[in-house]
Amino acid sequence: MDIISTGDAIKQREQPPSIGVAEYIGGYPIVTWQSFSASQRLLPPKYHRAKDLPHSLQDRMNVLPESYRNSEFARAVFEEIILEAMDDEPSAPPIKIYDNGIGQEMTPPWEFVYTNNMWFGEGVPPPDVRNLVSCGCRGKCDPKSSACACAKRQQQWLEPYILDGLFPATWPGSPFVYDSKGVLQREGCPIFECNQFCGCDEDCPNRVVQNGRTWPVNIVKTERKGWGVFAGPKKIPRGSYIGIYAGELLTEQEGEARGLLYNVFGRTYLFTIDFHHLKLGLKNEDDYENMYTVDAYHAGNFTRFLNHSCDPNCEITACYIEDADINKPLLAVFTIRDVEPWEELCFSYYGDTEVTKGKLIAREDAVYVACSCGSANCLGKLF
Length: 383
Ligand SMILES: C[S@@+](CC[C@H](N)C(=O)[O-])C[C@H]1O[C@@H](n2cnc3c(N)ncnc32)[C@H](O)[C@@H]1O
Hints:
Elements: H1 6-14, E1 23-25, E2 28-30, H2 33-40, E3 48-49, H3 56-62, H4 66-69, H5 72-84, E4 96-98, E5 113-114, E6 118-120, H6 149-163, E7 191-192, E8 217-221, E9 227-231, E10 241-244, E11 247-251, H7 252-265, E12 270-272, E13 292-295, E14 299-300, E15 307-308, E16 314-320, E17 330-335, E18 344-347, H8 352-356
Parallel strand pairs: 3-6, 4-8, 5-14, 6-11, 7-16, 15-18
Antiparallel strand pairs: 1-2, 8-9, 9-18, 10-17, 11-13, 12-13, 16-17
The structure holds S-adenosylmethionine.
S-adenosylmethionine binds near residues 226, 227 and 308.
GO molecular function: histone methyltransferase activity; zinc ion binding
Subcellular location: Chromosome
Keywords: Chromosome, Metal-binding, Methyltransferase, S-adenosyl-L-methionine, Transferase, Zinc
């Protein structure tokens, strides 16, 4: 055994960052918030696995008589379940369910787990926290500061859009995509928010999606489109954050397999992650191979009820927070124009390329229903 002096022993004990020890005072190890936070990068990340999705409540509800499932009481239970899942959204108003007197159903089907989280399917790697870019700012990030790593990273991802003339060089709050009130200033480009390892505070202007929904929304039965999402009594301004399209994060193969089933079944909740920025640098966009799909059928929140419109008032934007993997963004829903009180919230189910390249073809399966969005420029089909 090697004999080491007390001084050497202390030096040796100072080595491992994995336990978060920053320094020793009077021989006692001190864990500061900074050193604790840095050490978290080295621990296995915490995340939800799709195989652990709980479904006992749904199973129990589905064996009850229809008279119970279609009662006021069942509706109250549904609303309560939503409320319980909102503990990560301190400013989110409760969600109400209205059947509008259409049909017999008081609630949407008891077929999914209400959650704001992403649930990682088989073969999907855990969040990559080790490679997260984080700033060392104090208080609120200053977007103009050359020392803010998060501002720098956002600027890099905006560059192609600025070079293409799609965005001006600056705007209020740039290079962050939000203004000081958290309103989205630049639509259609990926968002990189500050994360758990950043030094800035919770009210940093680069933290919006992670602070949760603030606008009232309701789940309402429609005449021709099943259930939908409607604004509350307040007008929602353009650029407002609505929610995360939560659900199971699946490999493309699993998504494809489920898609075949849903096409026959007649309803689909799949969203393929194939944003434009993932194809940057490819000679031909068609060479891009999808890696992941989000499925909100078995798990999701109110956003799974967002219907399609050919003249949408919302858009889904890629948002990166706690996973450095560029192929695994969160799907953040934002308004792209002012939404009137009680207006239905919708996004377009078409990718840009499907519309521009005329891929809208008649298909046989039950999922290819005629579009009932009712807009003047309706294309007549959903997919
Ligand atoms: C993601 S779900 C939307 C929520 C769905 N309405 C429900 O009740 O669960 C997608 C399905 O809603 C229906 N849908 C959405 N938008 C529609 C539209 N514009 N016209 C007709 N049906 C629509 C289709 O059945 C589609 O497969």
